[in-house]
User: Which sequence fits this backbone?
């Protein structure tokens, strides 16, 4: 068999591998060997074509598609209450210092116009709770708004009902880009695969910040999520595992559970208008009766 | 011999049935400079220049304050749009200030009595041969950017029918037909053709929009208001 400088053989992808085989087949001696190689390749590619769109709901691929709402599984009263029951992150001294610094910053007023939130407001004067900017960054974990999952052939997409970046999870075998070419965001860069009925998602490139249950993250931190649907299809349990030798003494792990929205339900639009002054407020105290 | 082998290879590949009976329009799709074929809309006499001017002012306010764009402007994106086709729905995500679209493979819309109108409305989809027909109602005529290419604007009574069809693997045609008894004399139809983005395209964070950027506000319009 003639060898050659088959550049595609150096690229670890199915398509490149196919071209590589094709190249060898066309140059094979004796030619009958090439024909056999081509038949093998054609059969393989045809089989791949048929399996290109995974069938969700099988033993191999979980049926994640649809709307989900995070739930309080044990009556903790709030998501903060739930998180208080998670195992606390065990941090390195350097990470502990970073978290402490962040805590100091968080204690400062967030907005120029923020006033002392501990002082009661008179009737008609609302409590300022945001700067009114509707461009929320979102994040990797769901909040109280529903999130929606769609499983396409080569991507899983998770979108929120409230403002926030979508989760684009590449299922086509691509690698993470080099961190030097990645702008850190609240959702980072995610690749995924199906593993025996579980969607496994690897994420890097997250913007520096807090992690649930006392954790910390930087763009180098690796998050592994394992999405598993209950046998009745109604509950989705996501196991979060944070790993970073500079931050965690041991992997930091916890679970979040969501419930499937009822059949026939639809995604809401969480309207937000920065020009509306009441957008910044939580509660406007009414006039009190004497 | 080599030619025969190639022919054999092609025959085996092409004879294998696809796993999906309907086309898969999943991908990142982008508009180019020559992607829009938009005729002028035939508007009702009631849609006077004064009415249109008021709508223009409304839309300028929405842009100034980074409101969710909604349809049809979300589909006229300067960035690739991400279309992902699942079994029960198709989600279209935008790299602009727009909420995702959900195109549900369902036979009917929800009861509009209990549906909160949105900038994208409620979309149901079905395949007719190689064409995806998307039917959308439930718009909020008072939110987002409402102007429609070619003339007219979205109202709460608007009815949009889109036809998505792959012209080839790299070109997606989307024909939009707007009907609205308050705006159009006849249904208004236009076509966008989206080009498939490179296979390894990476979704980007949405274009930033800061409503409190004074320089931006000054740039956008001398009539930009300082809030409602």
Assistant:
């Amino acid at each position: 068999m003639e060898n050659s400088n088959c550049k595609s053989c150096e690229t670890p992808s199915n398509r490149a591998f196919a071209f590589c085989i094709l190249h060898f087949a066309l140059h094979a001696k004796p030619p009958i060997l090439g024909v056999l190689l081509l038949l093998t390749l054609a059969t393989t590619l045809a089989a791949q074509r048929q399996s290109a769109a995974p069938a969700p709901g099988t033993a191999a691929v979980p049926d994640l598609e649809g709307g989900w709402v995070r739930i309080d599984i044990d009556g903790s009263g709030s998501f903060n209450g739930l998180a208080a029951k998670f195992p606390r992150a065990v941090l390195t001294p350097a990470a502990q210092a970073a978290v402490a610094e962040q805590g100091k910053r968080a204690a400062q007023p967030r907005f120029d116009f923020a006033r002392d939130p501990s002082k009661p407001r008179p009737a008609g004067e609302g409590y300022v709770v945001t700067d009114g900017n509707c461009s929320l960054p979102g994040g990797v974990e769901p909040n109280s708004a529903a999130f929606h999952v769609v499983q396409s052939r080569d991507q899983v997409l998770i979108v929120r009902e409230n403002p926030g970046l979508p989760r684009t999870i590449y299922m086509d075998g691509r690698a993470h880009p080099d961190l030097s070419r990645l702008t850190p965001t609240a959702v980072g860069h995610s690749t995924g695969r199906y593993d025996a009925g579980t969607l496994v998602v690897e994420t890097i490139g997250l913007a520096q910040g807090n992690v649930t249950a006392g954790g910390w993250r930087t763009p180098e931190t690796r998050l592994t999520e394992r999405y598993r649907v209950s046998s009745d299809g109604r509950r989705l349990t996501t196991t979060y595992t944070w790993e970073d030798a500079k931050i965690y003494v041991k992997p930091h792990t916890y679970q979040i559970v969501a419930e499937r929205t009822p059949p026939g339900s639809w995604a809401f639009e969480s309207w937000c208008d920065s020009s509306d002054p009441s957008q910044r407020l939580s509660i406007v105290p009414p006039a009190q009766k004497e | 011999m080599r030619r025969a082998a190639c022919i054999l290879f092609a025959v085996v590949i092409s004879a294998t049935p696809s796993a999906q009976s309907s086309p898969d329009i999943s991908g990142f799709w982008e508009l180019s400079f020559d992607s829009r074929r938009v005729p002028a809309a035939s508007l009702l006499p009631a849609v006077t220049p004064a009415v249109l001017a008021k709508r223009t002012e409304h839309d300028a306010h929405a842009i100034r304050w980074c409101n969710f764009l909604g349809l049809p402007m979300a589909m006229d994106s300067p960035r690739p749009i991400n279309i992902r086709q699942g079994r029960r729905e198709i989600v279209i995500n935008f790299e602009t200030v727009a909420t995702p679209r959900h195109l549900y493979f369902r036979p009917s819309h929800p009861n509009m009595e209990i549906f909160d109108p949105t900038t994208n409305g409620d979309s149901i989809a079905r395949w007719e041969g190689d064409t995806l027909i998307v039917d959308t109602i439930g718009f909020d005529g008072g939110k987002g950017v409402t102007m429609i290419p070619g003339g007219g604007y979205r109202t709460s009574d608007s009815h949009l029918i889109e036809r998505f069809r792959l012209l080839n693997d790299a070109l997606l045609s989307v024909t939009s037909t707007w009907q609205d008894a308050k705006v159009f004399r006849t249904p208004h139809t236009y076509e966008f053709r989206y080009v498939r983005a490179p296979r390894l395209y990476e979704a980007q964070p949405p274009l930033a929009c800061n409503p409190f950027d004074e320089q931006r506000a000054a740039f956008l319009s001398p009539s930009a208001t300082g809030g409602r």
In short: Residues 31-50 of chain A form the longest helix (20 residues). Residues 1-22, 42-53 of chain A have pLDDT under 50 and may be disordered. The helical segments of chain A are 14-26, 31-50, 79-84, 93-107.
